[in-house]
Amino acid sequence: MSKIHxxxxxxxxxxxxxxxxxxxxxxxxxxxxxTGQNLxxxxxxxxxxxxxxxxxxxxRGVEVTGKVFKEGGRVADxxxxxxxxxxxxxxxxxxxxxDGLLKVRxxxxxxxxxGGGERPPAPVAGGGGGGGxxxxxxxxGGGGGGxxxEPTHLxxxxxxxxxxxGTASTGLSSASPEHMPxxxxxxxxxxxxDLSHAEGVTRDKETGLITGVGDRSSKDYVTHVAEHxxxxxxxxxxxxxxxxxxxxxxxxxxxxxxxxxxEDKRAWVEQRxxxxxxxxxxxxxxxxxxxxxxxxxxxxxxxxxxYNQANVGVTAVGMDMRxxxxxEGINGTGEDVIPDADLHPTLRQHLDDMTNKPGGYPVQDDTxxxxxxxxxxxxxxxxxxxxxxxxxxxxxxxxxxxxGPGALAEMRVDNYHPFRSGGIEQAPCCANCNLxxxxxxxNAGRYDRFPPxxxxxx
Length: 458
Prior knowledge:
By secondary structure, the chain is of the alpha+beta class. The protein has helices spanning 8-44, 50-104, 218-282, 345-355, 384-399, 431-436, and strands spanning 190-194, 201-203, 210-213, 216-217, 315-320, 325-330, 361-362, 371-372, 411-417, 425-426.
């Protein structure tokens, strides 16, 4: 029996440690590389003979060693990242096997399965349709009067497979954006919070929907989180740009310093020759002047442009006012779209209605009368807000709550461009998203055509 640890969390931790080790080795190699370059640069300015040759050879050797270390560190870093991905794939396969078992053995739902919950889904009244039952009253998060009833407790299998149908993150009960998970390039939606039992959350006594979080309305809270997340994605890019500007300035200063150094070095070599000749003529030991110190070459910035327009594009936050779940989506790259198997039936119906419109939609700036199957030329399943709402709908499906078209009215989204030159900027839903998410309010507004006409509020 193999003793290899295949626990996904263990694999991810091991991958993280290996990645950090690789980064450390790479950093050491970068410093060696810089040291070698400095030695060679020093030798080029020294024309005193054999010392220059030796220094240059040593510099080349140190420089090569540094490059080897850098490459080895890069490989280790990549291996660590791959190990972490292996953990994710292992967990996904585990959950897929569990789901398959549940399909053929429905009676197994009450048993503890790998990665699964221990409680069967409990029916909860939903909004926008369903059994016609009135949603249960819930107690407001701020405490208070004795006439308030106990809060609704949402039951169900919460440890589902991570991916486009939602994540298995737990312990996300904080409403504060500062305590939410770090930004990620994972194109699948990210669960940011579960406010179903969070303090400071108020609900409407009749509908059970969240109306406020802390001192903000539910609408303002969604924008508060969306703004904070967009700023988090933008910050590393801005830091990298500033560090690069500082580095270029330091390089220019170093170039001037090296010119002065080379002049001083030539004068120093001449002084040595003169002192050596004088000491020999006078029969004494030479008293050489101190050698000029070569300026240290600036170190390149260690931070990269982690998040940018190409790999993030647009960020969106979606919140379900009934479940209290908050999700984030990012556009990602052009290939990062919701897989067909993970598209929720409600959104699939909206997609079919959009793409099967008789006559299609006219192609912009086309004089031939050509049409396409969607109003906006972009991929409908690649936009951040669609990914977030898709995950929220699957969460409802798992909890046994109405996840039909009426559920969208109990959700709200807000979208942002994090990388605009003037700062973060709200991004209204495009014409595709307007149809995909019809019924769901958008704090950023929406467009119903392409090219965009007048923005429609919410």
